[in-house]
Amino acid sequence: MLSRTAQNLFWMGRYIERADATARIIEMGHRMAMLPGSNEMEEWRSVALASGSAPDLAGEEDITPAQVIHRLLIDADNFSSIRSCLASARANGRAIRTALTQDMWEALNDGWRQLGEMDPETARRSLLALLEWTKNRTAAFRGAAEGSLLRNDGYFFLRLGGLIERADMTLRLLDVKYYVLLPETDVVGGGRDYHQWTSVLRATSALRAYHHVYKGDYSPWGIADFLILNSIFPRSVSYCYRAILRFLEDLAELYGERSACHDTCAAMVAQLDELEIERLFQSGLHEFIDGAIVTTQRLSGEISRAYHF
Q1: Domain residue ranges of the chain, discontinuous segments joined by +
Q2: What is the pTM for the complete model shown?
Q3: pLDDT tens digits for range 115-132
Q4: What is the pLDDT of residue 23?
Q5: What would the mean pLDDT of 218-230 be, rounded to a whole number?
Q6: CB atoms within 10 A of CB 240
Q7: What pLDDT is stored for residue 193 in this prediction?
């Protein structure tokens, strides 16, 4: 496969996943801000931080929901806004149109101009509908890829991009909710916790799956364990890294060579296998997440260098 085609597929996967994750984070902030007694400014500040693309807003003293919504939903100058992500995914798809199936192209193309023609006030009034539309569009694309794309190197690169982005966003969300909103260990576990941590489950579509594993125990320890170490939940860090390693091994077998990205991913999987959540909280959850975010960013760069894009 041409390195340019691999690059387009890899970043298409990242952009689609980023649009979906950003929609989920905005929805989480909106839900939390609506709760009685919540600090609306702090909830939207956490959204700006978790997105990874609006740290300047998070640092402002008088942050407003309108500012965050505009930046993360329709701001053309923010390369990680939902509008920009969907436009970039489509541009990548158009550049390699013959590498996509008809179903994938239609999912990318359907209604893509909708956000580009929207003003900030309309976006805020229609927020929940737009977020649902975004989640449906990204789900349609992933479903089309799963149902129609050949399981060759093109599929591997597409999935690698999505999994890298998913692991990164899960880590950022956990870090913000634990370290920024609940920094004091002696306040973890109270009534305010329940809504904060279940909001994390909602943002990762994990609420029902978590209940199957932990029943009604919505503790930060259980939720962190589920989103970091559970190997069968598709948005957990462990699952993402295991899947990344499988696709990298498929590429190594196909191309007959291994590189630094294989070793980095294998080392992270081994580290996750050895971790226990109690020990992780004692040694520092924030420190682990910080390190895992750096590793994920390095892994993305190593994949790009290994396959020349």
Answers
A1: 1-149, 150-309
A2: 0.92
A3: 877 888 888 889 999 999
A4: 95
A5: 88
A6: 24
A7: 60
- For the chain, the three-class secondary structure string (H helix, E strand, C coil) is CCHHHHHHHHHHHHHHHHHHHHHHHHHHHHHHHCCCCCCHHHHHHHHHHHHCCCHHHHCCCCCCHHHHHHHHHHCCCCCCCHHHHHHHHHHHHHHCHHHCCHHHHHHHHCCCCCHHHCCHHHHHHCHHHHHHHHHHHHHHHHHHHHHHCCCCHHHHHHHHHHHHHHHHHHHHHHHHHHHHCCCCHHHCCCHHHHHHHHHHHHHCCCHHHHHHHHCCCCCHHHHHHHHHHCCCCCCCHHHHHHHHHHHHHHHHHHHCCCCHHHHHHHHHHHHHHHCCHHHHHHHCHHHHHHHHHHHHHHHHHHHHHHCCC
Distances in Å between the alpha carbon of 37 and those of 67, 104, 229?
Answer: 22, 44, 32
In this predicted structure, the answer to whether residue 181 has a pLDDT above a threshold of 70 is no
Any idea which residue has 């489950």 for tokens?
A: 201
Q: What is the pLDDT of residues 1-29, one digit of tens each?
A: 789 999 999 999 999 999 999 999 999 88
Residue among 20, 68, 59 at smallest CA distance from 40: 68
Convert the pLDDT of each residue in 246-298 to its tens digit.
999 999 999 999 999 999 999 999 999 999 988 888 888 889 999 999 999 99
Q: What Cα–Cα distance (Å) separates residue 58 from each residue in 37, 45, 48, 178, 196?
A: 21, 5, 6, 16, 18
- Which pLDDT score is estimated for 179? 52
